[in-house]
Amino acid sequence: MADYSGDPSEFKVYWFARDLIASSYGSYAKKEKPTLKQLSTRLGEELEDERFSGDSSLDRQKRIIRDTITDSVNKTYAGDVSKRYRQTEDLVERILRRIDTEDDIREFRIAIDAVVRTSEILETTPSFGKSEIIKIVDETLQTESGTLDPARTYDALFNVDFEGEAYQLGAQREPLIDYIYEKMADLRSDPQIEEKEVARIVSGIVQEYERRAGQSRASTAGNVLETGLQYIFDQFGIPATGDPAHFGDLEIDNMVEGPEGSIGFSCKRTLRERFRQSLSREAEIGVDEVWFVSLLMADVSREKVQDISNDGSRIYVPRDSFVWNRYKDDSDLSYTLRPADEFIEDIVEFTGLTDNT
User: Fold this and answer.
1) Residue 324 burial (CB count, 10 A)
2) Contact indicator for 260, 351 with CB cutoff of 8 Å
3) pTM metric for this prediction
């Protein structure tokens, strides 16, 4: 293949793969895997056909790419050009602009194989399910005497998040290793591909895979915490909504209502800027207060705690955190900043529910 200068724009397997899967171009590879496989096969036949060579052959291959991809989606919807078709046209334009030689066609075929195979891996990877979550929560909450300790609620949520991420990472990684092993052997058997070129191609495949895998892990992290929190409530006899409620762009994971008060909960790995969307919206949500649980302390600044305090809400942090040790004696934050080990106890007290702990 071509001699590369090291310019990132030349790493075409990576860019082809990224464009083929990008949501801005209709997530084409997710929806049209059979079409891409057929396209790759046809391009391979064209490359081997001695009747075609030079610029005329490259132009022919580009036309095949354009026609195959654009013809696979509906052009119109409700009497207008469909959004999907416009996205597909944008995709084709990006692909063709990267193709200057037949080596680029070969890299495009490698990208097709990579994105189709890695999509299949991600689609079939086992998820961190409810049974695994329940097992971790039970093991964390249970004392040596066999009782459940409500003070360990935060630890249970942290363990669910921590072990859930590790589970998903391992589940996503193992089949990728098998695929990369096969791909490296395949690339090394091609006399046109040098050893450094193998590393460049494989690194691009892995980089794009990890980007997508990371997105999938992030998207499921919230569901894992919602499930864990709901199960904890169930264990301590606290009646709570089992599904997250959406209020425009705001999501409340669980809600608890008792005779003396109601609470909406936002349990996240980090206290992102979106937390401010819930402030001053209790009436819309239908609760008296919104309580936050942040598993990581990096985003828990005094400014954010003060914002929560100004709204009369609360945030729960572990006693061994710097945030707690720094601000626990601050009278302005005494209602808002609460120790995580008193989370369940505070819920029972605030709502007036019967203490089942």
Assistant:
1) 18
2) yes
3) 0.73
Counting Cα atoms < 13 Å in the Cβ hemisphere of 1 gives 26
Separation CA 86–CA 25 (nearest Å): 8
pLDDT digits (tens, 9 = 90+) for 283-341: 566 788 889 998 988 889 999 999 889 888 899 999 999 999 999 999 999 999 999 99
Euclidean distance between CA atoms 132 and 39, whole angstroms? 41
CA–CA separation, 72 and 82 (whole Å): 13
Q: Cα separations (Å) of 4 from 14, 59, 100?
A: 14, 23, 14
* Angle in degrees, 0-180, between the axes of helices 130-141 and 153-188, rounded to the nearest 10: 140
CATH of domain 245-351: 3.40.91.80
Q: Where in the chain is the domain with CATH 3.40.91.80?
A: 245-351
**Could you tell me how many helices (H) and strands (E) the chain has, helices first?**
13, 9
Q: Which DSSP letter does residue 312 get?
A: T
Q: How does pLDDT run across 75-106, given as a tens digit for each residue?
A: 998 889 999 999 999 999 999 999 999 999 99
CA 64/CA 46 separation, integer angstroms: 10
**CA–CA distances in Å: residue 193 to residues 5, 46, 204, 231, 317:** 16, 19, 15, 54, 54
**pLDDT for position 278:** 56
